[in-house]
What we know:
Blueprint: H1 13-22, H2 35-61, H3 68-76, E1 89-96, E2 101-102, E3 107-109, E4 120-123, E5 127-128, E6 134-141, E7 157-158, E8 165-169, H4 183-195, H5 203-211, E9 216-223, E10 230-237, H6 245-255, E11 272-276, E12 279-287, E13 291-292, H7 298-315, E14 321-322, H8 324-332, E15 337-339, E16 344-345, E17 352-353, E18 358-367
Amino acid sequence: MAELPEYLQDQTFESILQRMLNALPADLDKSEGSPIYDAIAPVAAELAQAAIWAQEVLRRGFAQTTFGAYLDLKAEECGVVRRPAVVATGMVEFTGTPGTIIPAGTMVSTVGSDVAPAVFFSTIDDATIGAEGRVVVGVKAVEAGKSGNVAAGTIVMLAQPISGVATVTNLEPTTGGFDEESDESLLERYLEAAREERGGGNVADYRVWAGEVPGVGYRLVDPLWQGPNTVRVVILDQYGNIPSPELVAAVQEYLDPGGQGLGLGKAPPGAKVTVQAPREVALTIIVPNLTVEPGYTLLQARSNLEARARDYFLSISPGGVVRIKDLESAINAAAGVLDFGDVLVSGSRQNIMLVADEKAVLTEVIYT
């Protein structure tokens, strides 16, 4: 927070009390416990508390220092609204007796533990197990947020047994779950909307509009992409990942349904918008001569190393640079990693320059 105004400086209980005592005649008994002291001490305490409240009012009044619901109110002054959490969706397969009916709203879940509670999903539509003894039906997470993105083969429990159902599982991961937008992200979008010159469908407008769709993170706007009246918007999800087709479609629908330029979305009439995910640049890293810190197993060190490496790749926006030295610094910070040799990225020690619509994706870590 910036320096406090003068009227709020030096407003502690002690300083206020001392000023009040100093204002009284010198021949009075002002010692602690005296009637005068006891009479004015509560007033000094209340004034000090009022100064604290005034500081909090200032804190909540400015975008850079406010938070939570107060930041929501500030952002809404510029038409920026916090993106809500989004539920994850996916498909599950039921097996069992042909003809068994599985009603919409049937609850299934992952297996809970002391470390991670069970994640519950409900079926979206009515389904009936077919003659082959199986049926696949869509599900959505009961609670919105990233926690609903679970790995394949983890939804294996029925909340309530159904006669005729033998097993349930998800053959593919569930996807599309996003947490409510953080204060940090909302502040960034608010400042972007407040500071940039917007209007008429310029580049700043498209960045702001695309960022209003829940789940969207990075946005690249490519004006005049294929000539006049064409705009390309390249996005990542809010966690830095390649976006799902559903998220790309949602942004397309929000900006320019069908890419027809009819002005049915946020884009003005005549502007044909194409929303895309960046092209993946699949990269492999080779880590030679890995040695492990005492107290860690090789498996633990490798797991931590790979997590750090993936976080580094996630931090690189489309059009960025994969820097060998930065990658090695990230790996070196992994718990359990003591030392290693020169890291190679796809067999080279050269930095990798990405073009504007390319996103680096780590596919494998090889140890030699």
